[in-house]
Design brief:
Length: about 325
């Protein structure tokens, strides 16, 4: 990733969202790929101190993450205010103003929460409805006077949720479906499906939606090019009944259609018996996307994480002062 381009996107997004973290202590993660940006955003927005937790993972070694983070921080002249560590010392949390709900910071459990100063804010860094039990102990937060807030990803200042359609289009193209002129059925009962459908239609696809497979009209499934499974919230299996046997409903889907995974669990055994191709054929758990928006590049991550920090900044200032957000920021914060 070109460092100079990432830096420009960070500056532009901070300016657009008026993110101001001056004097604050931010606890976040240091990560690889497009997720390298979060501590850099916080420091560039004026944070007095940024603690960035990291560890070795399947994505990268901790040494590689440290090197990548320091390189980007140096290019933006903010390295002096970023501390990267693999040790979760109690002292790291005792002065935190904002803690981000990101991979290397989680779980934000009762032991961590007990260390935070009263009035601190946990930033979900996603919409409130995407909250996953186990990421943050909400009961402990309420008892300790810690606010937890999501961010409206469709707020006019950011509209990062619209990238979901771009991500869906990329997955379709990788599956060999051209998008333009293609018939795509989208299976999902949460916010993803309508946003994906609207975006694909703008790209020239014929897109239909159903909350359950049985709700699709036959016309949506006959000569269908792709069935996209996009249900993040579903706890159980979204496509198939989990028995490994193809249902009569599944047989309505055009045999040449490709099943493309976006989010949600599917019954692989049943689909194997129907002969349908599944792309990419990866087992997903509930509340998991095949790829996050980072699969598109750094811009969606910069915009989402800057907006997440802005939401937390607004919440924090409201908690500590009589400050109220201006009209431009009404609706950005999503309490939980």
């Amino acid at each position: 990733m070109p460092i100079d381009r990432i830096g420009r996107i960070i500056f532009e997004t901070i300016e657009r969202l008026e993110l101001d973290l001056r004097g604050l202590v931010i606890v976040t993660e240091a990560a690889s790929g497009p997720f390298v940006v979060t501590p850099i955003i916080a420091a560039t927005a004026g944070a007095a101190r940024v603690v960035a937790l990291t560890r070795t993972s399947s994505w990268a070694t901790s040494a590689a993450v440290v090197a990548g983070t320091r390189a980007l921080a140096k290019s933006l002249a903010v390295g002096g205010r970023i501390e990267i560590t693999t040790r979760r010392r109690p002292s790291l949390f005792q002065q935190a103003d904002i803690v981000t709900n990101l991979g290397f910071v989680r779980p934000i459990d009762a032991s961590m929460i007990s260390l935070l100063p009263r009035g601190a804010v946990v930033a979900l860094m996603c919409e409130s409805w995407e909250f996953r039990p186990g990421d943050v102990d909400l009961v402990a937060c309420r008892q300790a006077g810690i606010s937890v807030c999501g961010v409206n990803e469709e707020h006019p200042s950011v509209d990062v949720f619209g990238y979901s359609a771009t991500l869906a289009a990329k997955l379709l193209l990788e599956a060999g479906i051209e998008v333009r002129g293609s018939r795509v059925a989208i299976l999902g009962g949460d916010k993803f499906a309508p946003v994906i459908a609207r975006g694909l239609r703008q790209m020239g696809a014929c897109a239909s939606i159903a909350r359950a497979f049985e709700e699709f009209e036959d016309t949506a499934l006959v000569r269908c090019d792709a069935l996209m499974v996009a249900d993040y919230l579903a706890e159980g299996i979204v496509l198939g009944d989990g028995t490994g046997r193809p249902t009569s409903g599944l047989m309505r889907l055009d045999p040449s259609a490709t099943i493309v995974q976006f989010a949600g669990r599917i019954d692989f055994a049943a689909l194997k018996r129907t002969g349908h191709r599944v792309f990419p054929g990866k087992v997903l758990g509930s509340h998991r996307m095949l790829h996050t928006l980072a699969y598109l590049g750094p811009r969606p991550v910069v915009e989402l994480h800057t907006a997440g920090l802005k939401s937390a900044e607004i919440n924090l200032r409201c908690n500590r002062t009589s400050h109220r957000p201006g009209a431009d920021w009404v609706g950005l914060v999503q309490p939980i």
